[in-house]
Amino acid sequence: MRHTWPSCLLLLSALPAFADTNTAIEMTDGELNHCLQSSVASAAESMTVADLKQACRLLHAEKISTTEIEEQTLAEAPQTPVLRKRMTLEALNRSNRFMLTPHKRNYFFPVSYTRHPNVAPYQDTDSKSLSDLSKTEADFQLSVKILIREDIFGDNGHLYMGYTNHSLWQVYSDSDSAPFRESNHQPELILSFTNDWEILGFRNALNEVMLNHQSNGQGGLLSRSWNRVMLNTVFERGNFAFSLTPWYRIPEPEQEYPGDPDGDDNPDISDYMGNFEFNGAYQHSDDIYSIMLRNNLDGDNKGALELAWSFPISANLRGQFKYFNGYGHSLIDYNTDMEVLALGIVFTDLF
Q1: Dist. CA 87–CA 18, nearest whole Å
Q2: pLDDT surpasses 50 at 327
Q3: Which of 7, 36, 184, 269 qualifies as a FRET site for 220, CA 20 to 30 Å off?
Q4: Cα–Cα dist 214/228, whole Å
Q5: With respect to CATH, is domain 101-348 assigned 2.60.40.1230?
């Protein structure tokens, strides 16, 4: 998982049974009954009445915590583990066919700066105008998923289809008409299993098997793509969560000539993108600190590091500062070591 926060950790859509515990914000009986009546039709079939009540109380707390509740009151209240909150709220609307659920982070960074843009791929192609890239560009991502089938194996095993688009936009370019220099498309099929095992104080909340395709939608010499079978396991403890996602790249035939559409566009991609991804996140107050690591587990230690800090700027939006260093910032840059600083807005965060 990506990119950015791995696809893995954000595929948290199934719900284990939870006790109807007290929450920080008390609802009136009328507010609770209204929420139950409006939510029951779209909630996951496995949700009990206690689960629905817990979800309604979480929604109520999220709605008013930034405007009506003092921070001291929230700090003194019992806390729900961060992943459990997200899983509960997603399950509340899992069966709603009119709703697309956020998958990975959805964001827009109007400022994404790299000191040495990668112009090499464009120099010998029809996209020579991109050989003079602006060091500052816009970076945005749209990521959603939808439930295909629920409870395949008794009361567990949920099948999803996910899609993520990550685009780099040369909006500040003086030499061209502000082109989108790269757009990566990532459809995937996800079989998700919730879990409640505890290991060394950590709860193994989720395990997944994913069939993942990633492509930049280009042809000829600019084409980049690969297919993977991915495993993902997610753990949480209080305000800390992490995921480990190893993968196997599905082999493709060699190209018979440069730009061969039937051959492998990037046979060495695993040397740079690695064989696994680790993601970790910690929530302190309203701030979320996260880390992503990729590595090829070879002697040259190629991979990537990403550090991010997100913070609230309004009831519905969060700001984020992000630092990336390594390979695979996008598919066109998969074999180029880059250092990127970005600042922008996150529409849906990790939790």
Answers
A1: 11
A2: yes
A3: 7
A4: 9
A5: no
Asked whether the CA dihedral 147, 153, 154, 155 is positive or negative, the reply is: negative
Give the separation between CA 76 and CA 57, rounded to whole angstroms: 17
- With CA atoms as reference, report the closest residue to 147 among 161, 134, 137: 161
Give the whole-angstrom CA distance, residue 269 versus residue 273. 6
Query: In which region does residue 313 sit, left (phi positive, over 0), alpha (psi from -120 to 50) or beta (all else)?
Result: alpha
Of 60, 62, 66, nearest to 32 (Cα)?
60
The active-site residue out of 134, 167, 213, 329 is: 213
Tokens of 64: 């008013």
CB 12 within 8 A of CB 103: no
Average pLDDT over residues 209-238: 95
Where exactly are the structural domains of the chain?
101-348
- Mean of pLDDT over the chain: 83
- Which is it for strands 101-102 and 136-149: parallel, antiparallel or unpaired? antiparallel
Q: What is the pLDDT of residue 318?
A: 96
Is 116 designated active site? no
Residue 226: Cβ within 10 Å count: 22
Q: Is the pLDDT of residue 321 over 50?
A: yes
Tokens of 45: 């079939």
Say if pTM beats, i.e. exceeds, 0.85.
no
Task: Please confirm, yes or no, whether 158 is among the known catalytic residues.
Answer: no
Name the catalytic one among 215, 225, 310, 314: 215
Between these two residues, 53 and 72, which has the higher pLDDT value? 53
Q: Which of 48-57, 71-80, 214-223, 234-243 is predicted with the least confidence, judged by mean pLDDT? A: 71-80
In order of 163, 169, 344, the CA distances from 184 in angstroms are 10, 12, 19
